[in-house]
Every structure is written in structure tokens, then in C-alpha cells.
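Long-time lurker, first post. I've been practising inverse folding by hand and with some scripts of my own, and I keep getting stuck on stretches where the C-alpha cells seem ambiguous. Below is the full C-alpha cell string for one chain I'm working on. Before anyone asks, I'm not after the true native sequence, just a reasonable design that respects the backbone. If someone could post their per-position residues I'd love to compare against what I wrote down in my notebook.
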């Protein structure tokens, strides 16, 4: 008879902690470090693996861990039996008794799937398609704000530098970017905060206090693209909740392509797996798009017949973090 799945209880010794620093102790003396929020499902899965190593727990966990790193562009993979210990700061206690009010109850391993399915309204059935919500708002800037932005960007052509991904992988992204000047960042932070009460319910991740809002300007010139990637993972990117992309261009439009593909997921073996199906978002002038930062997405190739910088596909883009 197979043991019944149980609900493992975790007690965070500092209930107000917003992040848990984890050190993984692996067989052979190896170790790895990561940082996650207390509610992140990987924390429960790792502790379940350690608790079950001596047969003392039947809480399910993956046989192989694949932990995204660097915003999903890299991953750490190891077999569960290679995990010999987990050090957490602050301390996280495992127990099966009735918890106190400060305890956190986590059902392993379906919490990640449950969150995604709840956010999209999908069932948690094997093979169920998960289509993620995307919000696109037209006429985001006023006419005067847009004219000022375009004048600012066109005058700053020499300030744009080649965009890179964190692991410096070649042939993965081609475009040019610059950090947003303070005045531009202040404008977008104000405008984005103003629409958050409207956007949050539609993205169905629940309301939260907005923290830092990143802001950069990207010029997608002739031949630009950005292959399939995610903007959030563990470590330095785990606080990213939403990605936003504001589109603008000279009129008449001087480019073709540059659509945003937002990929669907499916549920396999209790995990979300990207599919080949997607939503295609048109880069409409003076519109802004919001979606969950953890979703796989891609920027399709851009074609600029004139090869002129001013005819490029422009965006102001970044991430919205949880406070």
C-alpha cells in the first residue's frame, strides 16, 4: 500500500521575514545557495526531501530538483537523494502537529500548480492548458507626455548600448537599451501605480504592496529579437511579480514584426511546463502590456527597412516587484 500524502507544516521563526536564505548541502561536500520568499513552493519541497530521507515523512517531493536561477536563464539540477541538509536563515521548523497561528501550512508538491491554476482559472488536471492573463491598455500616455518621450529618446540615440542577458549568452537577444532618466522613471512609476488597482485583479495574483519598479528604454532595431525566457525565478529576481512593456514608435510605423508571444503552460506530473501554443500581442503605439513575470515569453524578430534608429520598435519596459 502506498503511503498517503500528508500536509507538512512549516514554522518560520521570524513570521515577518520576507525572504529565506537557503544553503543546500549536497552529497560529496558540495553546496549551493539561493534566496526565496517564505511561501515559495521550492522551500517546502526541499525540506520535504530532507524530512523523508530517513523514512520519517511521506510528504511528496520531486525525485529530481530543477531550480531556476538567474531569472530562468540557468538552472541547478540534482537528484533528491543527493540532498543531505538544508540550512535556512531565519530558521524554518518542520512538524506535523497542529500549528500555531504563526505557522505556515504548505501542501507539497502541488502549491505552485495550484497558484498558477487559481490565477488563470484552469483545472489542476494532468495535461490541462493554462492560459495566462495579459492586460493591454491603449492611450497610456497623454499626447504631450508621448511627444516629450519621443523627443527625449531620439535625442539620446548615442546613449543606447547593446542589451545583454545576465549569463552573456550569445545569439539570445539583440536590441539596444538605456537606463531610463530620472524624469522618465518618475513618470512611469506614477502612471503604473495609478493603474495597479485596475490591473492587479485582471492578472489574478492577488493584491500586494507594490515595491520597486524597474524602468529602461529598449530600441529594437532591424534584426532585433529576444528568444524565449522568463523574467522571474529565485535569487535576485524572485520579487518580480509583473512585467510591463510600453510600446511607442514614430508614425507612420517604420517597422514590422516585434510581436510579443506569451506562452501557455500545461500541467505534467504536478509541474507547469511551457507549451508551443501562445497568445500573440501586437506592439500597438502608445499602449502598455502587463503580465506575470514568471511566464515564458518571446519577442519576435523586428524588421526596419530604412535601418534608421527613429524607425525602430521602442519600448519602456521593466518589472514590478512585491514590496
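-- Answer (accepted) --
I ran through it position by position. Result:
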Amino acid at each position: 500500500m502506498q503511503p498517503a500524502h500528508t500536509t507538512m507544516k512549516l514554522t518560520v521563526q521570524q513570521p515577518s521575514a520576507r525572504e529565506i536564505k537557503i544553503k543546500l548541502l549536497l552529497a560529496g561536500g558540495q553546496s549551493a545557495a539561493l534566496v526565496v520568499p517564505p511561501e515559495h513552493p521550492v522551500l517546502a519541497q526541499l525540506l520535504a526531501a530532507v524530512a523523508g530521507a530517513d523514512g520519517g515523512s511521506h510528504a511528496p517531493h520531486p525525485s529530481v530538483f530543477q531550480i531556476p536561477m538567474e531569472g530562468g536563464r540557468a538552472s541547478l539540477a540534482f537528484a533528491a537523494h543527493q540532498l543531505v541538509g538544508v540550512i535556512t536563515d531565519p530558521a524554518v521548523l518542520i512538524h506535523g502537529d497542529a500549528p500555531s497561528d504563526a505557522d505556515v501550512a504548505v501542501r507539497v508538491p502541488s502549491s505552485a500548480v495550484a497558484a498558477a491554476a487559481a490565477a488563470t482559472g484552469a483545472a489542476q488536471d494532468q495535461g490541462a492548458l493554462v492560459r495566462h492573463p495579459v492586460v493591454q491598455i491603449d492611450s497610456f500616455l497623454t499626447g504631450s507626455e508621448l511627444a516629450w518621450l519621443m523627443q527625449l529618446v531620439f535625442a539620446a540615440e548615442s546613449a543606447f548600448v547593446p542589451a545583454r542577458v545576465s549569463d552573456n549568452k550569445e545569439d539570445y537577444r539583440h536590441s539596444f537599451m538605456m537606463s531610463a532618466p530620472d524624469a522618465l522613471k518618475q513618470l512611469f512609476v506614477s502612471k503604473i501605480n495609478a493603474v495597479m488597482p485596475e490591473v492587479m485583479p485582471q492578472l489574478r495574483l492577488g493584491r500586494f504592496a507594490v515595491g520597486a519598479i524597474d524602468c529602461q528604454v529598449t530600441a529594437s532595431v532591424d534584426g532585433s529579437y529576444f528568444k524565449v525566457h522568463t523574467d522571474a525565478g529565485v535569487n535576485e529576481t524572485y520579487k518580480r511579480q509583473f512585467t510591463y512593456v510600453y510600446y511607442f514608435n514614430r508614425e507612420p510605423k517604420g517597422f514590422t514584426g516585434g510581436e510579443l508571444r506569451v506562452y501557455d503552460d500545461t500541467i505534467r506530473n504536478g509541474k507547469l511546463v511551457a507549451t508551443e501554443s501562445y497568445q500573440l500581442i501586437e506592439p500597438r503605439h502608445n499602449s502598455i502590456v502587463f503580465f506575470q513575470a514568471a511566464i515564458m515569453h518571446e519577442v519576435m524578430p523586428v524588421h526596419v527597412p530604412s535601418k534608421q534608429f527613429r524607425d525602430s520598435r521602442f519600448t519602456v519596459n521593466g518589472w514590478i516587484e512585491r514590496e
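A couple of notes from the structure itself: The chain has two domains: 7-109, 130-322. The CA atoms of residues 67 and 76 lie 5 Å apart. Happy to go over any region you disagree with.
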